[in-house]
Amino acid sequence: METERLIIRKAQQSDVNEFLKIHNSEFVLKYNACRPYGEEEAPHILKTYEEDEGTFFIEYKKNHQFIGSISVESDSLRHGVNSVCLSYFLGEDYTRLGLMKEALNQIIEYCFNTQNVDIISARVFSLNIASQKLLESLNFQLEGCIRQCVKGHHDIIYDDCIYSLLKCEYKI
User: Fold this and answer.
1) Under a CB-based contact definition with an 8 Å cutoff, are residues 121 and 72 in contact?
2) For residues 16 and 47, is the Cβ–Cβ distance under 8 A?
3) What pLDDT digit, counting tens, does each position of 134-161 carry?
4) Fewer beta carbons within 10 Å, N or C terminal of the chain?
5) What is the CATH number of the domain that holds 151?
6) Model's pTM, two decimal places?
7) Domain range for residue 130?
8) Based on the structure, what is the number of domains in the chain?
């Protein structure tokens, strides 16, 4: 998939150095429920992502570098509903440029029009105001907040805000 400034594609082994740098940064780890990866395991992680139909890497056309990732996963909070849950991260050097909004717009269109899902959700730590504003700018609605829900980096426990976008609310 492509947008004006981005290529949204499968992971490639050539992404390994930028992937480690961005994924393991304090900026990304702060608001994501993930652990840092070691150099020796990174190629295996990328191999898993290459084979995963729901993991997309974001490449910036300007420099042809990996700059972030979006995952489309099963929505673990809904039962018997045709829904998916998005998770994402972007390297700090690429924030506040509208790049993640551009990428998410493409993935949202893909989910609704190609995968034919009915609901897309996203979970955001309560202190991650930038991500909350991003989702709201994409017409996601705040459903609620689960208090003391997720243990993140440095064992900090965060409240988890749940957002969703219904297919009938989606505007191209």
Assistant:
1) no
2) no
3) 999 999 999 999 999 988 888 889 999 9
4) C
5) 3.40.630.30
6) 0.94
7) 6-169
8) 1
